[in-house]
What does this fold into?
Amino acid sequence: MATVAAEDTRAHIIEAAGPIFAEKGFHATTIREICQAAGANLASVNYYFRDKERLYHETVLRASEMRRAEVPLPQWSQETPPAERLKGFIHTIIERMVLMRKAPWQVKLMNREILQPTEACRDLIREYFRPHFEMLLAILDEMLPAGTPDHTRTQLGFSVVSQCLFYRMCEESVAMMVGEEELAAHYQGEQLAAHIARFSLAAFGHGNLADSPNTAS
Amino acid sequence: MATVAAEDTRAHIIEAAGPIFAEKGFHATTIREICQAAGANLASVNYYFRDKERLYHETVLRASEMRRAEVPLPQWSQETPPAERLKGFIHTIIERMVLMRKAPWQVKLMNREILQPTEACRDLIREYFRPHFEMLLAILDEMLPAGTPDHTRTQLGFSVVSQCLFYRMCEESVAMMVGEEELAAHYQGEQLAAHIARFSLAAFGHGNLADSPNTAS
Amino acid sequence: MATVAAEDTRAHIIEAAGPIFAEKGFHATTIREICQAAGANLASVNYYFRDKERLYHETVLRASEMRRAEVPLPQWSQETPPAERLKGFIHTIIERMVLMRKAPWQVKLMNREILQPTEACRDLIREYFRPHFEMLLAILDEMLPAGTPDHTRTQLGFSVVSQCLFYRMCEESVAMMVGEEELAAHYQGEQLAAHIARFSLAAFGHGNLADSPNTAS
Amino acid sequence: MATVAAEDTRAHIIEAAGPIFAEKGFHATTIREICQAAGANLASVNYYFRDKERLYHETVLRASEMRRAEVPLPQWSQETPPAERLKGFIHTIIERMVLMRKAPWQVKLMNREILQPTEACRDLIREYFRPHFEMLLAILDEMLPAGTPDHTRTQLGFSVVSQCLFYRMCEESVAMMVGEEELAAHYQGEQLAAHIARFSLAAFGHGNLADSPNTAS
DNA sequence: AATGAATGAGCCTTCATTCAT
DNA sequence: GATGAATGAAGGCTCATTCAT
It folds into this structure.
């Protein structure tokens, strides 16, 4: 076939592989399954990607690409106060990475990589997580006293991020603990983002937990 | 052989299975591997546990038992202030579930269950997570205004817990982001517990982030 | 245990094994299944019978014993005409060996042996089939011209017997060919015996097929 | 390899499987055995037939195809009297299905299906037995009084067929009863066919058992 | 360039049997 | 004498991969 068609097939396979890898993980996914879903020959994976592992790797990278293109980072004017920026940042993270119960395969797949990194994770951190994290630290810097040690800055960043990722990573367990009803009522993206922002801002001394009662509650 | 030996072999297999399941997950683990590590016959798993799945289930439950026995919950006198209790609680959680880079297999295995629950997770939540979480909520109640809605209480609890679990769940990714040196210097159990307690207490209005500079920093 | 109890267990196992061997055959039957059905230890079969094969053998022999005890051969006065005797004989064979769709396990098991003889078959022929067959030949002798060659006598005997066995051996296929309804209406023991007797007697020149219309038709 | 080779391998496996299944039955046969006999890979059976069961099914159907191609049905002119037709029919059945002691695997395998039908038996009856049986009934109709009830027609058909099948189904037992010498002398195909025809025709009122002494006796 | 055919390695499971008690 | 524990061998099947075309 022509090069164009070849590239098509390649892309087809990746897009078929994504949701399956995301749902079942590397080991539980079979090449047959992927090729069938892609309408491609059983030998295609080995032909286009050499082996299953490299297909997985490329699929992870493609997931991060797609996610970045779909949910752009927020832009702020110079006067936007840091508290506002933090709210916006958390909101974006929730949109990009969490979305309880309806996360697209790209998110689920990247999640797998954070939890059990393979080769692909280094690329993912470099291209995806590191830039986000630096942006968060820049916001925090405006709220922290000068001279805050580096590792403290970092851990404060982790304190914010961890609250966000928790709902994605422990989605199933959270659902088991709170029940489906409560999940539907109080764990939508907006609500979680507002809660995390309020908790974190209170920690940073901006307002306190009793302020501005959660609009979603 | 006698019953004693029988129980021995059973326990032997579980103890051999634990670290392997913890490291590679259910699918990537073979019973051949387990039996070899346990010095047992290939048919042993099916003999003692009926099938691979039930061995996995029992291994997860055994992990939680062992962990509870090894790290007991803190006991407080009635006058202990809630801030002190929260510090103690976070410390215990870190000890029980985190311990960067040297977590025993029990912790890793339970971690897997939270992230990708199987049947065993329900038992785990009932026997392990729920009791911990209720204890945490009782502490928070002393610091929260009366009438705080239930779901807000719960999410505040998650905000505390998520910071702890983060270092366990994203262990590998955290290591990739901060590097091995910094990890060794600033991410030991005590240090993480102190940071998380300070951040959370600040959010609850007890002290602020600038107070009592982290002794481990 | 005492000898009495031991003999009990032995007998128990045979009686549990009978129906299972009869239904599924030697290979498809497992020792576990038998021991479970007999409420005996898994090692019992090997202990009491040395191995699975000998248990099978003994079970087959036991089946023939039981069958002979349950359905005695007919007795005739000296004046009973041979045609009457043949009818009685056929009737007994049908009772002993056929009974479409409700044959006891003994019959099914012996049937297996005829079709695919093992060691046990020699005993079965000597103790069970041969005596029946000799009795049939004695009846036929009264209807055949003197000097009928031996192999012709034998084959005539086979012609009678084969019609009877057919309904047992090909039970399932017959059911497939005629359908369940017709089976229930026209293939009961009495009906089959009457048909076979009429056909055979006609062949031997006693009456013809149009005579004495089948009472069951 | 090319398609031709593929079909070759497929056919090869069926031809290797045939005799083994025929000899040992479905359960006692292993696919390892078959693949070895076919000079094929162990995975071949699953590749070409999905599983052991479907290989068995296809092998049974192939057996019937081969047998039909090898022994064609007799053709009669319109004037051929029914007695002559019946003789021809019995002869063909014996040729197709019996052939004491040298039956090809196709015959043995089909025999297994009649005795212990699996899924394949329905196909076998539809494609093989039913057409034969209808042909037999057509012949009998010419010898029976008009108005003979359907089930009687059928049972008369069975009386003829059962005599033929007996020598195939009970081959081993017959050999045990008459001994090898007599078997060789009086149980060849021609001889059995002649005997069965004479017995059956006598029953139908065409000639009697004393007529036309068996040329083979 | 792309694919249908074929395969070797390995998986989980089951079974009849044995052995120590 | 009788049994629970344990095992070696084998079975059917699946999978990622390779090879000839």
Remarks:
- Residues 30-32, 42-43, 45-46, 51-52 of chain C lie near DNA strand E (CB under 10 Å from a C1').
